[in-house]
Prior knowledge:
With 78 residues, the protein is mainly alpha-helical. The protein has helices at residues 29-39, 62-74. The chain has one domain. The longest helix is centred in the C-terminal third of the chain and has 13 residues, at 62-74. The radius of gyration is 14 Å and the shape is globular.
Amino acid sequence: MKRFVEGVARDQGGLFPAHLEDFVADDNPVRAVDAFVDKLDLRALGFEAVDPSATGRPGYHPAVLLKLYIYGYLNAIP
C-alpha cells in the first residue's frame, strides 16, 4: 500500500494498552470485516483509486475506507 496514508501497526505497543488488539475481542465482527475485505480484489471490483496518483497528498487506501463503511453499516452508524 505505498503512496497511501499508513496507519500505526496494530501490534505496536502504546502508552495505555499493551496493543490496540487488546481492545477488540476475538469474536468481534470487525475481525470478519477485516479478513473479508483483505481477500477482495478491489481492482477487479472497479475501485479505481487502488492505483494512487504520483502527485499530491497521499489518500487513504480504498480497502481501509471500505472496512469502515461496512463496519458502520453493520452497526447502523451513519
